[in-house]
Amino acid sequence: MKNRLREHLLFLAPPGFWLLIFFVVPLLLIFGYSFAVKDAYGGVQQGFTLENFAQVFDPLYLPVFIRSVVISFGITILTILLGYPVAYYISFTRSKLKYLLLFAVTLPLWTNFLVKVYSFMILLGENGLINSALLGSGIISEPLPLINNSFSLVLSFVYINLPFLIMPVYASLDKIDPSIIEASHDLGASSTATFFRVILPYSAPGMAAGVVFVLIPTLTNFLVPEFLGGMNNYMIGNLIQQQFSHSRNLPLGAAFSSVMIVAVVIMVSLYLRYFNPYKDGKEENER
Amino acid sequence: MSGNRKEMEPGARRNPVKISPLTTLISIVIGLFLISPVVITVIYSFNSGSRITAWEGFSLKWYQSALENISLWTSIKNTLVIAIANTIISTLLGTTAAYALARFRFRFKLVFRNLIYIPVILPEIIFGIALLSFFNLLSVEPGLTTVILSHVTFTVSFVTLIVGARFDKFDFRLEEAALDLGASHLTAFFKVVLPVIAPGVVSAAIFAFTLSVDDFIITFFTAGTGASTLPVKIYSMIKFSITPEINAISTILILLTSITLIAAFFLQKSNLLERVKPVYILSGFIIIVGALSVLSFTLGNKQQVNVFIWTEYIDQKIITDFEEKYDIKVNLDYYSNNEEILAKLQLGNTGYDLIFPSDYMVDIMRREGLIRKIDTSTIENFQHIDPSFKKGYFDESGEYHIPYAYGYMGIVYNKEKVKNPPASWSILWDERYKGRIIVLNDMRELFTVAYNYLGLDIEKRSEADLETALDLLKKQKRLLKKYESSVVQEYMYSGEVWLSHTDIGTALKIMRNDPRVDFIIPKEGTNIFIDNIAIPATAPNYGNALKFIDHLIEPRNTALNIEKVLYPMPNKEVAKYLPEKLKQNKLLFPTPEQISSFTTLKDLGEFNKKMDIAWTKLMNY
Known about the structure:
The complex is a heterodimer. Chain A is an all-alpha fold. Chain A has helices at about 1-35, 50-55, 60-90, 95-105, 115-125, 130-135, 150-175, 180-185, 190-220, 225-230, 235-245, 250-275, and strands spanning about 35-40, 45. In chain A, a hairpin with a 5-residue loop joins strand 1 (about 35-40) and strand 2. In chain A, helix 7 (about 150-175) crosses helix 9. The radius of gyration of chain A is 24 Å and the shape is globular. The relative contact order of chain A is 0.12. By secondary structure, chain B is an alpha/beta fold. In chain B, strands 5, 6, 7, 8, 9, 10 and 12 form a seven-stranded mixed sheet that branches. In chain B, helix 3 crosses helix 12, helix 7 crosses helix 9 and helix 18 (about 445-455) crosses helix 19 (about 465-475). In chain B, about 50% of the residues are buried. Residues about 1-15 of chain B have low confidence and may be disordered. At the A-B interface, helix 1, helix 3, helix 4, helix 5 and helix 7 of A face helix 1, helix 2, helix 4, helix 5 and helix 6 of B.
């Protein structure tokens, strides 16, 4: 028993302490700032106030919150619908295309975000490649509004999120034992039934990870709305960014952040309870 | 388990899973979608024109210019050093965390598990500010090390989750069996567990590397002197004209990446990981950490000066000349707005010797005690500075700043589309140009335009005036293409936008490339900004900073600088060293009357909060 204790500390201590020191402590600092008073120049001065939180819950910000939640849930669903088939294909195909696709999924992650923004401008702009091609071939007579609207916002969000969904789903699909699937077929299950009863449950942990990777960063992203969004895509991330930069109100920014952190922690905890990647049933064979 | 994996490799006899044609089609389309922006980046790196979004012909000149750009290579070197260190540390930590979570029961397991998720979801800006405050609390000077520590903190969760997914459905009885047969815990881990999770570990490592390479915000806040990474460099470059040089650099990186990915793929395939002993991993880790410390030690020993500046705000030749003349190394880092320097200085000791804050920011920094007095007696070239800029409301004694460059706001317009040269701000409310107008995505600048147009004084801090200005801006919103501060040039070049609210330097750069474009100063008046040289109170190399200032404001160097950055600089002697064309440019040399009619944007104190609320209303409108 004593041996067991030392062993688990060996594995647990390094990441545990790392997170405690470089993550928990800095976060507590931010919580602290959210109760602090803003000094004249945006810094933090001594004092305790709840005023920052009063402002966070001002109805003024409600549309921003609603907009962000709707956009990020929509994006997440869309990313799953488009990304899952790709992960599925990569996992089960016997074609060499698998490696090309894996490469295509990883490659965008290696190009700087801003460089990709410019590429999207080249593609989607009024005089961009798509519009020029469509105009040139006579399919349309007026350029299509493809950029700086909700369309380009959704497109670019799905674009940056796809690899973050495909990779973890692929990772969990990849380790399904083919004999399980064969067994399902042998027992008379149709392909559809096999997918829903066998494959999908096996990929649940990967999906769980993927959804977290997609949903929450989208919720707080401020760069995509700024560069590729339209006139009505102001999101929570922009709001927080505004406080830290132009409005120079660090305590208010910290208060928004604290509320976000708490909301997200609650969401993730609830989520883990229902889609736990480390299911409790598994812990039985730990002994 | 690992045996099963092999059966799924191509060439296995039976594949029980049927893939519908629709799935195949979706996969191919998504694959094409994913690579198309990258392909465009590569193609446009061979563009002979200087505009990033319009094809003008084939050329390799941007590769040459990228190869010659030293600061770009420094930033790439930093990026790679950080990414490699981060990958090693976070993969080790994340894998052990995933193992511990899957394998053991322990107290606070639930807490630990939830804690792992939070770094993934924390807004990066909060992460950056939190870490910066933390390092400041411990008086750690920001540098490469702080960036590495920060990157590990946000990537370790991704590693844990990816490796954790691999552990799911892992049968720990295999490990028990190994233990029963006499293997030690570590042997069991490396011989039985690791081979099964190896693919997960490799993809997690690639992922960690990737996240690190592409991160901007956290790096920006935690990076100190000489630790600017490529994303930080690129971000600050967009403030000024972005060129296909960026595409050339990206293409080189994509090439290197592809090679790495293919190498990683074969590494994984050859099952090399299963054969590598923990000792090797550990010693490799020690070697890299050692190399890093040697590197930072050698860099730390030379005489140097650390400069924090807007990108493309200085001619590279001035720097190389200075380094040769004085044998002092210049470390350049870049920022893209005043608030960023303030946040950094307020939260910590940055190690910077020279910064370039604008007027109102000099005021704030002086009052907050963040910058020190500059002894101009040793700066010989200070005599050439235009005396009318030596003092200002923001520094009445003139002891805290030396004026570097200035600019003023106005409207750039496309002469072919806007036939009558505009004279007033009202053109930005003109129905005829609906969807063809851009205004700055900047609360203070935009409200200033509205106030100027209305003839109101923002300094009065009247709430009624603020409402009037807000109503005016609401009316404008449906006519706008965008609120945009960064990529104005591209919109003007492509002809998508005909009218844009911008500053003189940006305007002159657009006009240099595009003869269809002109610039006006609206008759209702406009505002001026003065960017100044200042020395942080914590500057470690004050003496070198003075030498650098002296070199920088030498009239010949100032002339070089004006040619490069196209902002006016307040130097009495500079005109004689400028080419004839620039000498005659009235926009570059506004008359003293014009200059005195421009207003400066002063800090509005508590009124900022009211404006911030008005801004949110405008964004929601």
